[in-house]
Amino acid sequence: MQKRIFSAFIVILLLGVLLTGFLNLSLIRTNYLNELENKLVSNGFLIEEFLKENLQQLTESDLKRITEDYGRRIDARITFIDNHGEVLADTMANEQTIENHRNRKEVIEALNGRVGTDLRRSTTLDEEMFYVAIPVDLNINNLRVIRLAVNLQEITRINQTQYFYIIISILIGLLPSLMLAYRFVDKIMEPIKAITEVTKKIAAGGFDRRVEVITDDEIGELANNFNNMAERLKETISKLSENNTKFKALLTSMKNPIIAVDNKHRLILLNPAAEELFQMKMEDALGKHILEVIRNNVLDEQLKDILQNNVENQIEVTTEEPSEKILKIYSNPIKLEEDPSRIIGIVALIEDVTEIRRLEKMRSDFVANVSHELKTPLTSISGFVETLKSGGIDDEDTKLRFLDIIDIETERLTRLINDILTLSEIENTQLKAMNQEILTSEALLEVEEIMRPIANGKDIELVTGIEYHLPILQGNPDWFKQMLINLLDNAIKYTPNEGKVYLHAFEKYNNIIITVKDTGIGIPKKDLPRLFERFYRVDKARSRKVGGTGLGLAIVKHIVLSLKGKIKVNSELDKGTEFTVIIPID
């Protein structure tokens, strides 16, 4: 650093001398040109006055004589130019050989009614010339410009003299200045070196180190200020570290995703929950536009509205990436504490309401479906009762037929209510059900005995393959049997006469595998994803005809979930369907 300061001192010294010399040179040149311009302008106006006074006596041939005569008097080149830029007369050249001057800078200014000046090398005389052109309006060959020009030999001579004195000043003052500069720099560097040494130790984490420089000058003041700064820096870093730890702990502990963006909608903060939601690390997301993380134009427009109107807001948006979700976003502007009117960004708390909205839709659909399913048999019962009351009861055949239908609809209504109650019970008492033992093999054999007469009634062959002594499961035995009955009942209902239904149960990979397969009508692929929804029927007319409530498979799914298992279905139209239940062994 000492060498750099010394070198800088030399450079400053040289620059000072050179700049002073060149500024003086520029000042002299500027003053010279200003005086020269004033002189030429005055002479130009004098020539204009002369021409105006003698306008009646002058002829075209007199213009050349005037330029030569006045040119010798004022030691300048005089040029008369018409309104088209053609040279009418010139002091030092034959106007016939001079090119058109309409593109000359000073001539353009004069033709526009202003005094024009320019400094350039003359193509006619091959000398550096200073030009002044004044506008006139004389009826001598449309004379519109009087231009005067002088060469700059005098200013060149002055410049050369100035250069000489500048070089002499540098040579005389450089040596003693260098000696003084070296001693001064060496003296001033001692406390700076001490401060530098302490700064290195502070940068390495030694915030307790201080500078020991005892002087009354600016260096001593610098040392004292440095020590004060180091003390405040120590306190600030300690507070920042503590606040940063608390802030990180707060963000990490919050289950709701939080994001923050600046005024240009670039991300400046994501907490771990937001990283998980958008499947993006904070270091990768910082600086990116919000649309690169949440691909939703509605959100972007809402953020713009908050920035413009300085208001809180909450919206609900649906995102497509990284997965389809419904997000409820509570957003607030970030304001400076010292200037609340200034917004520097937006912080948003995000709530994933995908599951809530799905459950709300399921509840709404469930209520609608229950109302519909209950209304149908009740309407039928009400209609037949009304008919009987209106006189139909007197006809014995009609009465019996109507009572049979009412009985059928009542049974259907009973089955529906029972299935609803069963489903509600399964959903609300899962924990209690897990404490009971299920004798798996025995339960399977009991269900086989129950369902075989039903299968025989439709001339359907029930084929079973149940391993004996299957492991005991934890759950509700009645629900387990209900699951098997529902699956087998569906298989029998939707299998034509003389078809086959298969029931197999075995242990594999620490799981109990139960399969129910039939040779029935099958299920279209488009319906498979919704098969376990409540009241969803593939063929509604056929389902009601065979007595289905639309809740059987929904009950099966919830029973499987209560056993911590999973269920799969494969089907092909007109070839049959296979349900596979996989239950882990505790």
Question: What Rg, in angstroms, do the CA atoms define?
Answer: 52 Å
Distance between the termini: 76 Å
Domain module tally: 4
**Beta-strand residue percentage:** 15-25%
- In helices, the fraction of residues equals 40-55%
Derived structural class: alpha+beta
CATH level-1 class of the largest domain: Alpha Beta
**Cross-sheet strand order for the largest sheet:** 2-1-5-4-3
Shape: elongated
What does the average pLDDT come to?
77
Protein described:
The protein is of the alpha+beta class. It has four domains: 2-156, Beta-Lactamase, CATH 3.30.450; 254-352, 2-Layer Sandwich (Beta-Lactamase); 358-428, Helix Hairpins (Orthogonal Bundle); 431-584, Histidine kinase-like ATPase, C-terminal domain (Heat Shock Protein 90), CATH 3.30.565. It contains 15 helices and 17 strands. It has helices spanning 2-53, 62-74, 105-111, 153-203, 218-253, 272-278, 282-285, 297-309, 354-389, 396-428, 430-433, 440-457, 477-493, 540-545, 552-562; strands at residues 77-82, 87-90, 116-121, 128-138, 143-151, 258-262, 267-270, 313-319, 325-335, 343-352, 437-438, 461-466, 473-474, 500-508, 511-518, 566-572, 576-584. The protein has a five-stranded antiparallel β-sheet with strand order 2-1-5-4-3. Strands 7-6-10-9-8 form a five-stranded antiparallel β-sheet, with helices on both faces. A hairpin with a 3-residue loop joins strand 16 (566-572) and strand 17 (576-584). Helix 10 packs parallel to helix 15 (552-562). The longest helix is centred in the first third of the chain and has 52 residues, at 2-53. Residues 541-547 have low confidence and may be disordered.
